[in-house]
Amino acid sequence: MRKWIALTLLLSGCGSADTVPPTSFVVASTTSTQDSGFLDGMAPEFEKANPGLSPKVIAVGSGEAMELGRRGDADVLLAHSPKDEEMFMQEGKGILRDPVMSNDFVIAGPASDTAAIGDATDAAGALLRIAQSRKLFVSRGDESGTHIREIELWAETGVTPRGTWYLESGQGMAESLMIASEKAAYVLTDSATFTVMEGKLKIIRLFAGDPLLVNRYSVIPVTNARRQQAALDFARWLTGPLGQEFIRNFGRKEHGVSLFVPASEHADSAGES
């Protein structure tokens, strides 16, 4: 009788695989992937395909995401600031850097378009018109991938934006869009976040299509990650068939259009590691 009791206790102590807590790992990503709903939709799909792993997402600007990686506070990055990512890899902080997906930046603003950017020939020309007319422009001003791209575009114009017409929000994409909407201002935004928020905004898309507005995202497992294998599994899933299929369909049901293009459909989709 005692043997049966001991065996029962032993088996109950072992528990089942379902009761084992999942391994949590930290994904540092951008506010645009958070505000577009991508991260919330992606996490359960990843967990379904990778039982025992659970991504904990920290949504910040790409620059801050890389600082988290440098400090060892993130296991894997999902970023969209190519030059900063290249520097991160040159520093030896990333194991590999693989393309995941893309969409586009657009310049949104009031329907009246008093700066007349809608018929500009390129993105730099559109910004130059805003600067010359001193129409209000909202910048994220937060070293995010969107902010870095904005700075690069201003450099193309030869204008250093400053003055009362240039407002730095210091906020994420969703908050910056709301500020631009309330103030009838112009703003550079990723197309995914704008699509998700469009019904709440009083501004519209005014300029798009310049090759300089292509917005590419990469995944980077951090070299000294605490959960390095989990980080590699996450990167492998995102760039593999299941992750790419999720990206291909994300947003289609709710918005009638995919919010991102999977890297597997890019003509130059070779890895960047």
What do these coordinates show?
The model is unreliable at 1-17 and 269-273 (pLDDT under 50). This protein has helices spanning 2-14, 31-35, 38-49, 62-70, 82-90, 123-133, 145-157, 173-183, 191-197, 228-239, 241-249, 252-255, and strands spanning 23-29, 53-59, 76-79, 98-109, 137-139, 166-168, 186-190, 204-207, 214-221, 261-262. It folds into two domains: 17-103 and 216-265, D-Maltodextrin-Binding Protein, domain 2; 104-213, D-Maltodextrin-Binding Protein, domain 2 (3-Layer(aba) Sandwich), CATH 3.40.190.10. Helix 7 links the parallel strand 5 (137-139) and strand 6 (166-168). It has twelve helices and ten strands. Strands 1, 2, 3, 4, 5, 6, 7, 8, 9 and 10 form a ten-stranded mixed sheet that branches. 42% of the residues are buried. The chain has 273 residues and is an alpha/beta fold. Helix 3 (38-49) runs antiparallel to helix 11 and helix 6 (123-133) packs across helix 7 (145-157).
Query: Which stretches are poorly predicted, pLDDT < 50 over at least 5 residues?
Result: 1-17, 269-273
CA radius of gyration is 22 Å
What's the quaternary structure here? single chain
SSE string: HEHHEHEHEHEHEHEHEEHHHE
Count the helices. How many?
12
Overall pLDDT, averaged? Answer: 91
Query: What is the 3D shape?
Result: globular
Total count of strands: 10
CATH class of the largest domain: Alpha Beta
Helix content: 40-55%
Alpha-beta classification = alpha/beta
Ends apart, CA distance between termini: 61 Å
Sheet with the most strands, sense and barrel status:
10 strands, mixed
For the record, the count of structural domains works out to 2
Second rung of CATH, namely the architecture of the largest domain:
3-Layer(aba) Sandwich
Q: In the CATH scheme, what's the topology name of the largest domain? A: D-Maltodextrin-Binding Protein, domain 2
